[in-house]
Specification:
434 Repressor (Amino-terminal Domain); Rossmann fold; eight-stranded mixed β-sheet; six-stranded parallel β-sheet; 18 helices; 22 strands; globular; binds cytidine-5'-monophosphate
Length: 482
């Protein structure tokens, strides 16, 4: 299924989308065939996704390629630094960024929504339960439409709410309901900032991928001094503009690069109801597919059966067995990059009677008193087969789950399977499987990097940076050889 077909099916199918957008179903069928949505319909599609609470951001081209403006939602929470947000608004207004503002109740004790409106020339949103606000722009649209949500100043209170999933006002509800990039600029008394509770929330939020503009150190309005001061608005806005630039550069980093990723487990049937398999949630492979898609890569994900939502990517192929996975990889070649993250079942088990006879495998094997025997048949090694074959992609990456001698075993796989990089992790005591965190070690011929424990999302982000370096080196070698 191509990317646009996946998107249409997520949104309810051809008929439903055609009805919502008030266009002919044949037009939608055409989009699916061409794997492209005309830019004039991007906004309507995004709004439909937002209305249905479905994140479809990655299915469409990077924002700069679309025909509407970059959007920031500024949330002002209540602290002595709230007044500085007026300067932030003034500076953002000087750019061509589309800005909306939400204020918390306590922020309104420091500055008024009227003052904000006079700067933005737009409605300032303050109330979760306002009928008027909800009909104009409901809180889900406020949460979904911005590219960035900036909370400045971010109080200890709003950080605690977000870290713990509280949604008792408009600002905290938006933060919880959003898929957008969230940036917090904390500002508070130094003792509050250093309080263990705040520091734990800070760490929790950072681990979840929320970005921080760190508070400055110096004299505070309350007379104390230390860390907790809101950085100057000019620095906050500059940092955001540089982030936007970076994101937009990253969004085309893998443009025209085709990437194959295997993920999840494979399963090998014993009979119609029983099978053997490997432990794998698919999470790490799906995060890599998602990150490469965000960076403009043409990603085909070949996955075994998993219980997690599919990432947005060009193409998803679902398989069951190792043979099906290998066939699918072959069919997708040539490709520039192959990442074998799947936990492929190494053997197929063929059941035999105690007198070594085969069963009729169309029927469930009956429980009898006599024991079953199994013949083990080795499955193909997808990674090694492709890495040693004629159609070897430019870059081939394998994974290695080990319970002992992590680096040694991973290194021998690097050599024996002819791959460029092995991402190794320790899976003793069932660590890693299904978890959101991972601790990996990157093994190359002349290099070994031990990464600290981090979320699988963050491993994907850093690994994609590494892959970008490998690809640049490969292309550079090609240029030098000419
Ligand atoms: O040899 P081992 O199974 O530990 O190697 C792990 C690496 O090889 C992973 O990248 C996995 O995706 C790949 N592999 C494969 N086909 C197999 C077994 C492993 O592609 N049959």
């Amino acid at each position: 299924m191509n990317k646009i077909s996946q998107l249409i099916s997520l949104l309810g199918g051809t008929g439903a989308v055609a009805k919502e957008l008030k266009i002919q179903p044949s037009a939608i069928s055409n989009w699916k065939k061409l794997n492209k949505i005309p830019s004039s319909k991007h906004k309507a599609i995004l709004e439909l996704g937002s209305f249905l609470n479905i994140n479809i951001e990655n299915f469409l081209p990077a924002k700069k390629l679309r025909d509407f403006k970059f959007k920031i939602l500024l949330i002002i929470s209540g602290g002595v630094a709230s007044y500085k947000s007026l300067e932030i608004i003034r500076l953002i207004k000087k750019t061509n960024i589309n800005l909306d503002v939400v204020m918390t109740k306590s922020a309104q004790r420091f500055i008024t929504p009227l003052l904000v409106t006079s700067l933005t020339e737009k409605k300032c949103y303050v109330d979760l339960f306002s009928v008027e606000d909800e009909t104009k722009m409901n809180h889900i649209s406020l949460a979904r439409s911005p590219d960035i949500i900036l909370v400045a100043p971010a109080t200890a209170n709003i950080m605690a709410k977000l870290a713990n999933g509280l949604a008792d006002d408009l600002a905290s509800t938006i933060l919880l309901a959003s898929f957008s990039k969230i940036i917090l600029a904390p500002s508070m008394n130094p003792v509050m900032w250093n309080n263990l509770a705040t520091q734990e929330n800070y760490k929790k939020l950072k681990d979840r991928g929320i970005k921080f503009i760190e508070p400055d150190t110096g004299d505070m309005a309350c007379g104390e001094s230390g860390a907790g001061r809101l950085p100057e608005p000019k620095l906050i806005v500059e940092s955001i503009l540089s982030d936007i630039n970076k994101d937009q550069t990253l969004a085309s980093q893998f443009k025209n690069v085709s990437i194959l990723i295997t993920a999840g487990p494979t399963i090998e049937n014993i009979d119609p109801v029983r099978f053997v398999s490997n432990r794998s949630s698919g999470k790490q492979g799906f995060e890599i597919a998602s990150e490469l898609t965000k960076r403009g890569g043409k990603v085909t994900l070949i996955t075994g059966p998993v219980n997690i939502p599919f990432p947005a990517c060009e193409n998803i192929i679902q398989v069951n067995t190792a043979h099906e996975m290998l066939d699918s990889v072959y069919k997708q070649l040539p490709a520039d990059i192959l990442i074998c993250n799947a936990a492929v079942a190494d053997w197929k088990l063929v059941p035999k009677t105690s007198s070594n006879k085969n069963f009729d495998l169309n029927n469930k094997i009956k429980k009898t008193n006599s024991s079953l025997l199994f013949e083990t048949i080795k499955n193909p090694d997808i990674l090694a087969t492709i890495a040693k074959g004629n159609l070897r992609p430019k870059i081939v990456i394998g994974f290695s789950a080990e319970t002992n001698n992590l680096k040694k075993n991973a290194y021998s796989k690097l050599i024996s399977k002819n791959v460029d990089l092995i991402v190794a992790n320790n899976v003793s005591n069932n660590k890693v499987f299904g978890e959101d965190y991972n601790k990996v070690c990157l093994i190359e011929k002349n290099n070994c990097e031990e990464w600290e424990t981090q979320s699988k999302k963050s491993v994907a982000f850093n690994l994609v940076n590494k892959i970008n370096n490998l690809l640049n080196n490969y292309n550079q070698r090609g240029i030098n050889a000419k």
